[in-house]
Amino acid sequence: MSPPRPVHVGVSFGKLESLHDGLGEFSLQLARRLAARAPELEAEGIRLHFHTRRHRLPLLGEGVGRLELHRIQKYLHVRPVRFDVWHRTHQLISHLPPLGARHRMVTVHDFNYVYGKTGRELERQTRRSRRMLAGTDLVVTDTRYVAGDVRGHGGFRGPVETIHLGARSLVGDPQEPV
């Protein structure tokens, strides 16, 4: 009898343009904590794959599959492995989940455009958000307020989970005057 097929979980960090802003810090902390648990998860039959730009992949940790982000994936994303779960770590990722991904989830950090855009730009952002949410099975937010925005402004009717973000301690870090 052959061993069961591993569960493939893809975690997309998008372009990961800056490591020095909120999304960069969130992405690094999430990736490093997941990578630290990768051997334990692998023993349970769960194989992690991180998806971002080639030069950012080594920063996210070892022991996970590495998937390079390509521009074409905004329109068509094909992988030889079938993903059981594909997680976009923030709502600004415009790259699609791979074809055949069984479950798709996204973490929505905010719907700030609703409160700052007007006219055509508001309509464009709303269409984009609704299209992204329409292709999602589960939404994770970091506050109940954002969960309300996802339901109200995003029109999402599926399950929404709120998981409050943690923060790393900066007590031991060198302090520089402002």
Number of helical regions: 4
Count the strands?
Answer: 7
Give the amount of beta strand, in percent: 15-25%
Strand order of the largest sheet: 3-2-1-4-5-6-7
Oligomer: single chain
Order of helices and strands: EHEEEEHHEHE
**What percent of residues adopt helix (DSSP H or I)?**
25-40%
| Uncertain regions spanning at least 5 consecutive residues | none
User: How would you classify the helix and strand content by structural class?
Assistant: alpha/beta
Mean pLDDT over the residues: 89
Describe the structure.
The protein is α/β, with parallel strands linked by helices. It contains 4 helices and 7 strands, in the order E-H-E-E-E-E-H-H-E-H-E. It has helices at 22-43, 113-116, 119-134, 144-152, and strands at residues 7-14, 46-52, 65-68, 85-88, 103-108, 138-141, 160-162. It has a 7-stranded parallel sheet, sandwiched between helices. The longest helix is centred in the N-terminal third of the chain and has 22 residues, at 22-43. The model has no long low-confidence stretch (mean pLDDT 89).
List the helices and strands and how they pair.
Layout: E1 7-14, H1 22-43, E2 46-52, E3 65-68, E4 85-88, E5 103-108, H2 113-116, H3 119-134, E6 138-141, H4 144-152, E7 160-162
Parallel strand pairs: 1-2, 1-4, 2-3, 4-5, 5-6, 6-7
Characteristic key phrases:
178 residues; alpha/beta; 7 strands
